[in-house]
Amino acid sequence: MPEHNNKLPLKILLAAPRGFCAGVDRAIQIVELALEKYGAPIYVRHEIVHNRYVVDSLKAKGAIFVEELDEIPETTSPVIFSAHGVPKSVPKDATSRNMFYLDATCPLVSKVHVEAERHHEMDRQIILIGHQGHPEVIGTMGQLPEGTVTLIETVEDARNVEFNSDREIAYITQTTLSVDDTDEIVQILQERIPGIRQPHKEDICYATTNRQASVKAIAKDCDLVIVVGATNSSNSMRLVEVAKKAGCMHAQLVQRADDLPWDLIKTANTVGITAGASAPEILVDEIIEAFSSRRNITVETISTASESIFFNLPRELRELASQ
After folding, report:
1. What average pLDDT does the segment 59-73 reach?
2. Exactly one of 32, 47, 115, 136 is catalytic; which is it?
């Protein structure tokens, strides 16, 4: 009897949209085009995006990743800032060292930076909803003098955050948060601080919102949801949480096919797959192939939105990109 007839059936629900967003795609392009234009090595401050496969691929092409500028020797090679954004002190430091730098900060993160600065100029107290220690939060808080921005992370923080009732107050958010959790925090802030200024347009980015909506659409029908992403990727970790809250008892983050939880999969009839905004589609394909080697799979894509957003590249790289 042919081997494939011995395999148990498995239905895979593939969430769409998933994977790379416009900001991640732009950041990776900036590194690749800089390597093509200026030659190796080029230096990247922090992981360009939070994905080991992407970082290792760029390392193989000649990118050198550092955490701080003082790790970079004197060089005329470009230095690239990651998609998460950096404090104002970083480009200032780069300029003082006569470094040529390219900024790969996602434009939607830059939008939050601009909002923070405008609130500061209006002498408003600023509350930032985000995760302490995340590079995006460090970058956003670093747009303004130390102590200017109050960071809150939880509902409990929102209930207890101190504010000056004599000043106007505004809130901003990290772009990769759980939409539902953030709504709950915002609701508490609005109850406590009537008239609190909110973003003109939602700070949580379109890609985070869309990926969470797509995983909600499949979670209730799945025995297990696999989220392809990295443990230091905020938007990927939120997808695991969203899948569980949406009705899937088992949701797990995996970086590669080698991480798949086969003990859970062997009893599953339906598995959902999605990917964080910094996870390339090749890793999704790898995981589907791994399922195929053990089960008779059928794959159905469940689409909840279409995406066509594109962000311009830095001026120095546009001509090369157009070729």
Report:
1. 97
2. 136
Domain coordinates of the chain in residue numbers?
Answer: 8-20+206-303, 22-106+311-322, 108-192
Handedness of CA 235, 240, 244, 248 (dihedral sign): positive
CB contact at 8 A, 101 and 94: yes
Cross-strand bridge partners of residue 63 = 42
> 281 an active-site residue?
no
pLDDT class of 1 with cuts at 50, 70, 90:
very low
Tens digit of each residue's pLDDT (9 = 90 or more) over 270-284? 999 999 999 999 999
Q: What is the pTM of this model?
A: 0.93
176-to-26, 83, 206, 235, 288 alpha-carbon distances in Å:
17, 12, 9, 5, 26
Give the residue-averaged pLDDT of 51-68: 97
- DSSP annotation of 176 reads T
Which CATH architecture describes the domain 8-20+206-303? 3-Layer(aba) Sandwich (3.40)
Per this entry, what is the length of the chain? 323
Topology match between the domains 8-20+206-303 and 108-192: yes
Tokens of 299: 């794959």
- Specify the CATH number of the domain 22-106+311-322: 3.40.50.11270
